[in-house]
Amino acid sequence: MWLARRGHEVTVVERRVFPRSKGCGDVLTPRAVRQLHELGLDLHLVRDLRAVRDEHAPLGRDRPAPGTDEADGAPRAGTLHGHRLVGVRLVRGDRSRELAWPSQGAADLAAGPAGGAEAGVVRRRDLDRAVLDLASRCGAEVLAGHEAIEPVVERGFVRGAHVRSPDGVTRSIDADHVVVADGANSPFGRALGTFRTRRWPYAAAIRSYWTSPRSDDDRLEIVLDLADRSGQALPGYGWVAPVGDGTVNIGVGLLSTARDFKTTNVAHLLEAFAVDLADRWGIDPSAKAGVTRVGRVPMGGSVQPTAGPTFLVVGDAAGVASPFTGAGIDAAYETGRMAADVLHEALSGAGPTALQRYPRLVAETYAEQYKLARLWGRLLGRPAAMRRVSGAAVRSRTVGDTMLRIMSGALRHDEFGAPETVARLATRVLQVAPEA
């Protein structure tokens, strides 16, 4: 969209046909909301999403039940509505702490109507379709249902992609530059030599939907005492994201630093988590209102290289999701915008050397945040540390606010920078915090 608006010829090769569901928590952090607003998406985050959808329901037709894959995100006319979240609720055992979204951060977070940060929940089925439609209206050619199966390489340079159409016909699309944005598994990226740094953690996540009378709750709930069947603390968390349409998105995310990560069944974790939430959220654990999706996400800039002479890698394909949470919608939009800026410079006369500025931009934006989050990830891999951190977060507003700023990528610049500062922050949170 950024490139098409600047007059460049853009082709989007999209393997899926929209709308489609996706394994995701559906939460738009303030950073993600800011990027969507600046893209020009007409996004409205409201408290009563059902009232908005009923108002725009087509006459003479029964609307699909909320939570089903057939239910769509009306209205379609260039406007996308989502459920507004005013903050986060951290939960551990029978204790909880409610926190507002941080209004300061490394990216100067978007200010909502009341001057605070704005965040919300939008199903990826609806969000991704709206963004793709807007890209088309901005002038990009969108090839839905087409798969980029391998790069076109001439004399060592990527010059496009071999693309398979829905009817099985393969053709080549030539391009001066290629943006690799094919997600966490990134087969196209691997064909170009990208690889994940194995010593850095990644996340496994699973989610589904349930009908809940608290669907209009205005806080994202994060449960910090995730445990296995034996009661052993796990480095991860559970979430409940109220969707506002009568359902809630419930999921668990587990870091690969878990002792028995490879043998842990995340589906069983989700089932047990739903049982634990049943009374508080009024759900029937055995009656899901949507499909279950699972995925693994590389994190913390763990994928390299992110640039070549004629290609750039963005989003999950570049492993830029938060190493603290595995959330990556905001970083995907941000790296896409950085890539567009660099490509515009290259196409405007600077030539291919301009693409080498992209890895530096990514490092400048995320390196210190990710350094801190990777340190926390190692600490949280120890059950004793996990219990102390989660307990401190719900007892102390200072610790809770610090944890939320790390989780949402909103640390102030004076809170990170030097390695000793990173260590000091981690140590502070591991201390037994005073009641506050």
Describe this structure in words.
- The structure is a single chain.
- The radius of gyration is 21 Å and the shape is globular.
- A hairpin with a 5-residue loop joins strand 10 (157-164) and strand 11.
- It is α+β, with helices and mostly antiparallel strands and 436 residues long.
- It has helices at residues 2-5, 30-39, 49-55, 124-137, 187-191, 266-281, 329-350, 357-380, 383-395, 397-407, 419-430, and strands at 11-14, 27-28, 42-46, 79-85, 87-92, 95-100, 119-121, 141-144, 147-154, 157-164, 170-174, 178-180, 195-196, 202-211, 219-223, 236-242, 247-255, 293-298, 303-304, 311-313.
- Helix 8 runs parallel beside helix 11 (419-430) and helix 9 (383-395) packs across helix 10 (397-407).
- It has a seven-stranded mixed sheet with strand order 6-5-15-16-17-14-18, sandwiched between helices.
- Among the domains are: 202-297, D-Amino Acid Oxidase, Chain A, domain 2 (2-Layer Sandwich), CATH 3.30.9; 378-430, no CATH class.
Largest sheet: 7 strands, mixed
**CATH fold-level topology of one domain:** D-Amino Acid Oxidase, Chain A, domain 2
Strand content: 15-25%
Mean pLDDT over all positions: 85
What is the CATH first-level class name of one domain? Alpha Beta
Strand tally, please?
Answer: 20
- What is the second-level CATH architecture of one domain? 2-Layer Sandwich
The structure class reads: alpha+beta
Q: Supply the number of helical segments.
A: 11
Helix content: 25-40%
Major sheet strand order: 6-5-15-16-17-14-18
Distance between the termini: 46 Å
Q: Supply Rg.
A: 21 Å
Shape category:
globular
Low confidence ranges: 58-77, 104-115, 416-420, 432-436
